[in-house]
Amino acid sequence: MVTLYTSPSCNSCRKAKKWFDDHKIPYVIKSIFSSDLKAEDIMEILKKSENGSEDIISSRSKIVMENDIDFDEMTISELISFILKNPSVLKRPLIVDDRRLQVGYNEDEIRSFIPEAQRYAWLGCNHRECEHFDDCPSHSCADEN
User: Fold this and answer.
1) Are residues 122 and 95 part of one domain?
2) 106, 142: one domain
3) d(CA 96, CA 24)
4) What are the b/e assignments for 33-62, b being 16+ CB within 10 Å?
5) Comparing C-alpha atoms, which of 30, 5, 25, 1 is closest to residue 104?
6) Which residue, 16, 27, 71, 106, could crosslink 2 as a Cys pair with Cβ 3.0–4.6 Å?
7) Cβ–Cβ contacts within 10 Å for residue 142, how many?
8) Is the separation of the CB atoms in 74 and 82 below 8 Å?
9) CA distances from 32 to 21, 48, 59 (A)
10) In this predicted model, what pLDDT tens digit does every residue of 78-128 receive, in sequence order?
11) How far is C-alpha 144 from the chain's CA centre?
12) Which are the contacts of 22, defined by CB distance < 8 A and separation ≥ 6?
């Protein structure tokens, strides 16, 4: 299952939700500003990141800039505690499934969340020009050959 970590006023978050809705891919939303965000969530996100906190924390965040925070000096526990107290430092949306993490909305990269069976069905379709190609999970148009 895909989890979207979002905030209410985030335009990129709305784009990600719309993309998943348009592609009929189920997801769960967790608001970073609510009690939905848990230490375990942050740990899982960090495990899937290539560069640790650098990938998920905005260095331009007001609290980071005003306090000259060095995340490299923090222990994992301190980092998680800091994020839970200051969730606005997180980049958004954070899109996570059992294998991967995507930070932000990127129209090309988000396609990696299309389920494997659905991708195979699309590869079999001979009508890539079909106006319904992107939202046709079964690609019944392939039968029109």
Assistant:
1) no
2) no
3) 17
4) eeeebeeebbeebbebbeeebeebbeeebe
5) 5
6) 27
7) 15
8) yes
9) 20, 18, 17
10) 999 999 999 999 999 999 999 999 999 999 999 999 887 776 666 666 555
11) 36
12) 134, 135
Looking at this protein, which amino acid is placed at residue 87?
Answer: P
Per-residue pLDDT band at 45 (split at 50, 70, 90): very high
| Three-state secondary structure call for residue 27 | strand
**Residue pointed to by tokens 């925070």:** 69
Query: Rounded to 10 degrees, what is the CA torsion of 21, 90, 115, 18?
Result: 10
Domain count, the chain: 2
pLDDT for res 134: 61
Give the residue numbers annotated as catalytic, written as ranges: 10
Q: Which two tokens stand for residue 87?
A: 């969730």
Q: Are strands 2-6 and 94-96 parallel, antiparallel or unpaired?
A: antiparallel
Which residue range forms the structural domain that includes residue 141? 115-145
Which 8-state DSSP code applies to residue 140?
G
* DSSP 8-state symbol, 128: T
Task: Give the pairing of strands 94-96 and 101-103.
Answer: antiparallel
DSSP 3-state assignment of 28? strand
